[in-house]
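Comment thread on ticket #2218

A.B. wrote:
> Attaching the input chain for the structure job we discussed in standup.
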Amino acid sequence: MEFHQIRYFVALAKCMNFTRAAEQCNVSQPALTKSIQKLEYELGGALVFRERHLSQLTDLGKLMLPTLERTLLAVEEARANAKKFKRKKVAILRVALTPMISASILAQPIAALTTQLPGLQVDLVDAESSNVFEGLLSGDVSAALGSSCIGPTPERIERFSLFRERVFVACAEGSRMAEEATVSLKDLRSAKWLEAIDCEIYRAFREQLCEGQVAQPGHRAQGLQHLQHLVSANLGVMLTPEHAPALPDAVVRPIADFDFKHTVELFVVGGRQYSPALDAFIKICRQFDWQTLLTKAQARIAPNTGRFTAMSRRQRDPEVVRITA
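C.D. wrote:
> Ran it. Output below, let me know if you need it in another format.
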């Protein structure tokens, strides 16, 4: 079955006249008739009763018409979207974030990207560190942001270092740990932990920096935002990266015994032809002034308290963020 056969049949069904249908489709009447006959052969029965001055659809033709009309509309819509894509009028970009990467760091890069691609649509989706590369290789996501703590990457994955930042400990305001200017490893080893599920930073902290002596998590959640609510309720402590906003009822403290840092990295599939949106996204991320962003993040911490300023509800509870220009 070919597309032009469907188009000819739908045109004929609307006017029930072979001559007019041929004129509407800009083909000769014999060509239209031959195409209809081929379609009937492929569908296994007559679609049209052919009479000298009157033609009408058969029962099979009536049955097939709605389906073929939907098929025609779908193909025409696909062609229109492809034309818009080639003209850069529409662009879709799916970016995965591993558990300890806040969507807040991409607000300014995406804003800059929309000036280049006015039809840009970005989907920011949560990803566990163990399967983020699978999502990239399968094409489910175009790019991913994660931590250098994620370890070795598959051969086809290309990684770019964006910025290096400190990792703090967040605890509830008014808790015993919040009373001190810094948090010792001894306190952390005995604390009740709130941990992001399948998070590369927690694994690195627990296994390498603390030699596996940090207690197992009391509660776990998919990412930063959910954990912050548990911290505010004084249900435990959590790690929080320097760039991430936090809820107002939490305070952050540096770890006294060492300066725990990691690097935020951009991951893409190397050797693959990038869409205009992905190509522009990679360039913006690599050229962006991340240090200025970190300086602003530091300014959110009130002097001598480590307390973050309040956030809007939208900032506090992003699940999947969709930004459409």
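A.B. wrote:
> Thanks. Noting for the ticket: Confidence is low (pLDDT under 50) at residues 302-325.
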